[in-house]
């Protein structure tokens, strides 16, 4: 299961000519992408470009209709997110990162609860989970007054960080982040970007999805720009400038808004 | 637990960060509002209805609450898990009819009929859950369909085998006595009638509370009700949890059905319609959110207790029982407002 050998030719996860349609809607067509250990692959694209669809295939939430998905070089189709998680692929979704009404620590450990005791009387080790959740969040610079408060009461950035910290803590080898900075201010975006870089330095392969070429260019090693479900650009860091990336992302009329966003 | 990002050793002092003070934690529990309501209603009837003050009356109140409360706890769990069961009321009758009919028609030991009825009840729960999960049809509709099907079957089957709308007596058949002791025994201690069902109810509330708050399944129940897609994304087996909850309601329906069978001896086939709303109302009074993801078993039990007090209190106070539903409706609204207020001010911290 150790795949943090960066010189290995096989990618942690690879999709090749992948396609997906929802009924008559073609959400994705002929898209290829590699996720290597210790690298950040950025996926950019406008609303509806197919970014979320692409990563939902990699994380087992949807199945692809065409093409192949390989994990450690081995062809795979995930039938559930649990399978992807068991292969070390953890995803933080833009729309379903946490359960708002549940306490922070319960969210942190949801699906991977620590238990004590045996047989039918196995129960949650809530003290240990509370403590661990608090420590892991503190490492991300999130000091919560109360680990028992519902996640829904946290700020957007804090919620993202809880979800990311959870994925990293549970030993993910591949971390997929769906627009983690979309709803965040500059400072909180910075925290998320820093933590993403930390995950990369720890040897994880990261897929970073964003609308924001500025964020992407700050941390990306490789860039894939999607447009209407197809690959519009596929380039390494050395081959693309921020301006080019912005250009690829934005068709004419949106450029003004983007420029404004970049100049804040 | 492998940690990929290296953990700095935790500061020893940090581990014991103070939790909220106890009163604060009590106040933010989902059942906080219903506890206040229960005390208020208790005081109200205690002051206005003299017979209400006797211990034996209180035992009757508890019994009324238990008949409703066992179902309310199961339905409350299901609601926390984000689903409804409108068939729960008639399913109680179905279970009792199944046990009586199977035992009588095939002249079997009563134990066989009782376990067959358990099978029937669990199957109904499984069917509800399976259809809701696999088709994505709202549970409101699926279980409404089940309500109608069971209601029809209860009457049709009973009339077919007995020619009337009530079941035959099975009280002289083998195994009856032991089962009666389990489901419907009662003792009189110092003039107070203690029914075993009340003890069962308390036990079920305790188990449900423990499961909800202290086990992994409990965590999953809150999660599938709070946001089932998020829960699925982190590996929670959503389908199994929801189907399990429906089967828990099935189990509770069987248990209450058996109690009715062994205490009333014969079952009226038309009974049960409308009860499903009482279960849901009890759960809501107890702080369960209609939208799921929030609530407690103690709350649902409190809701049932409030029902019991009102139901009996009106009689003890000598009022026209016609007012019962008016009283109940007002209480539902008040309780919902109170719960909303408690949740809001808890959120403010
Ligand atoms: N479950 C679904 N059923 C039908 N169509 C869908 C579904 N999910 C996505 N689509 C469609 O597929 C296309 C791609 O959607 P997707 O969510 O992947 O875009 P995205 O790049 O993530 O957009 P955004 O930036 O807004 O998050 C869109 O046209 C969308 O309407
Ligand atoms: Mg998206």
UniProtKB/TrEMBL annotation, chain A:
Keywords: ATP-binding, Nucleotide-binding. One of its GO terms (molecular function) is ATP hydrolysis activity. The keyword Methyltransferase does not apply. The keyword Oxidoreductase does not apply. SUPFAM superfamilies: P-loop containing nucleoside triphosphate hydrolases. Residues 13-253 form the ABC transporter domain. Pfam families: ABC_tran. It comes from the Bacteria. This is Monosaccharide ABC transporter ATP-binding protein (CUT2 family). InterPro entries: AAA+_ATPase (IPR003593), ABC_carbohydrate_import_ATPase (IPR050107), ABC_transporter-like_ATP-bd (IPR003439), ABC_transporter-like_CS (IPR017871), P-loop_NTPase (IPR027417).
UniProtKB/TrEMBL annotation, chain B:
It comes from the Bacteria. Keywords: Cell inner membrane, Cell membrane, Membrane, Sugar transport, Transmembrane, Transmembrane helix, Transport. It is a multi-pass membrane protein. The keyword Transmembrane helix applies. Its main location: membrane. The chain crosses the membrane at residues 32-52, 59-80, 86-104, 111-133, 194-213, 243-267, 279-307, 323-342. It is found in: Cell membrane. InterPro entries: ABC_transp_permease (IPR001851). GO terms for cellular component: plasma membrane. One of its GO terms (molecular function) is transmembrane transporter activity. Coiled coil: none annotated. Part of the binding-protein-dependent transport system for D-xylose. Probably responsible for the translocation of the substrate across the membrane. This is Xylose transport system permease protein XylH. It comes from Haloactinopolyspora alba.
